[in-house]
Design goal:
By secondary structure, this protein is of the alpha/beta class. The protein folds into two domains: 41 residues; 181 residues, 2-Layer Sandwich (Nucleotidyltransferase, domain 5). It contains ten helices and five strands. The chain has a five-stranded mixed β-sheet, with helices on both faces.
């Protein structure tokens, strides 16, 4: 799974057949059936237009909302928010990570981790985001976590229009997909989280860095926080758990990365 996860970041356009061939070239005797099972378990699929089966699966009886973005060009903060779930590998096992992002600024409003795919961690992330602001449109995939009553009800009560990706539209949530690539290459892969607490702590440091310090070419080499227009201090939802007073190494070059590993 570690090999598949790393190779997916390098070649996200590889499907089952190419992944199988690549693993065989590395000396691993695998068949397409096993590779397909592992990729599905991790919620990974090749990036090209096709029906998407990721970590979020439609819930039986849940309402599916129409896709509202279409040709919409995001022109201001809090016009469109989006959420998605990804797999985060650990030294033993894995976690699931959800993030809520403002499309215009790429600002991550909130995030949460869980050892299961139950809806609760997504609902918790949404509650923290809505305490900061309210979007005009909230876009997700059609997964059961996002179509659950506990998730859609706060949005409807806040007067937010709900949008869900259409089947076969691989790029409807492309900005969050790009966020996952960045988080994994810059934070997750250089480490082997030993515990959930360690993963949460380091991810908290990284999201602070991502919002407050990391320059984005697409934003004119500004930070997401500067474009979103927030104060310099990170929101409570993005701070590391209480008691963790260190900063992410990328925010302080005087700190040796290996001290934190």
């Amino acid at each position: 799974m570690r090999l598949l996860d790393g190779q997916y970041i390098r070649t996200p356009f590889y499907g089952v057949d190419k992944m199988t061939a690549w693993l065989r070239l590395q000396g691993h005797a695998v068949n397409p059936k096993r590779v397909r099972r592992l990729l599905r378990q991790m919620g990974l699929e090749a990036i090209y237009p096709r029906p998407r089966r990721g970590l979020s699966q439609p819930g039986s009886g849940h309402r599916i909302y129409p896709y509202l973005l279409g040709e919409l060009a995001s022109a201001r903060p809090n016009q469109v928010w989006a959420a998605d779930i990804t797999y985060v590998r650990m030294y033993r096992g894995w976690l699931y990570l959800v993030a809520i992002m403002d499309w215009f600024s790429r600002y991550v409003l909130s995030w949460e981790v869980s050892v299961t795919l139950e809806a609760e961690f997504c609902v918790a992330a949404l509650a923290r985001a809505l305490r900061q602001a309210r979007p005009e449109i909230f876009n997700t995939d059609q997964g059961s976590q996002f179509s659950a009553e506990a998730f859609v009800r706060p949005l409807e009560e806040a007067g937010v229009r709900i949008s869900m990706d259409g089947k076969g539209r691989a790029f409807d949530n492309i900005f969050v997909e790009r966020l996952w690539r960045t988080v994994k290459v810059e934070e997750v892969y250089p480490r082997d989280y030993q515990t959930v607490a360690e993963a949460r702590r380091h991810l908290g440091w990284y999201f602070d860095f991502y919002n407050q310090e990391r320059l984005h070419q697409a934003l004119g080499y500004r930070t997401p926080a500067a474009v979103y227009g927030v104060a310099a201090a990170p929101p409570v939802a993005l701070r590391a758990p209480s008691g963790a007073t260190a900063v992410h190494p990328a925010m302080n070059p005087l700190i040796n990365r290996e001290i934190l590993v």
